[in-house]
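Service request form, structural biology core

Requester: graduate student, group of Dr. S.
Request type: structure prediction, single chain
Budget code: on file
Notes: please return the result as structure tokens.

Sequence provided:
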Amino acid sequence: MGVKPTGVVVSQLIPGTHAPCNLQLMDVVLAVDGTATPSEASLHAALGRVKPGAVVRLRVRRGGKLLTVPVRTIDDQGLALVGFVPNQSAKIKLPIKVAIDSSGIGGPSAGLAFTLEVMQKLGRNVLHGHRVAATGEMELNGAVGAIGGIKQKTYGVRQAGAEVFLVPAGQNARDARRYAGPVRIIPVHNLSQALRALATLPRA
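Core staff response, request fulfilled:
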């Protein structure tokens, strides 16, 4: 599999900053003041050289167009904050063809579930006979990111009759346990941890 970072996606605009004036959701930030930002790390590094309150010029891909967008930063504890939540954009070349019907699904929270299902379809015994539910955003490095709406998701998992619910570690897991009832909540930080947790469950 080949993974090539291609920029940073504007996944959420932060109220109270100047970003909502000029940026749009799903813009892909390619550069800051002429410095390429193919990854989140490079974006943070570029902004680390900016004086808080200064105007930065962002090279942005919006749809099929390339734009230069000025945005005034704000001071966030001594650091320049543009005002959006970044997400990695990348070109991914897979050794097989994968098609996923995501109609009716909004946001990135099905990432972990999709990943486990693809592995199961390819012949790996991921579920080990258990009724498993999963939620979490899949990062390119295998990390499982936090998601929203965990209360509603946990109730849905209970109604579906799942035995186990894999959720992002941290606040998501703590909240899920409040509503899980008989469902076992397994907090995970990454895909490897999720696979190990499933492999060590008692055999169904």
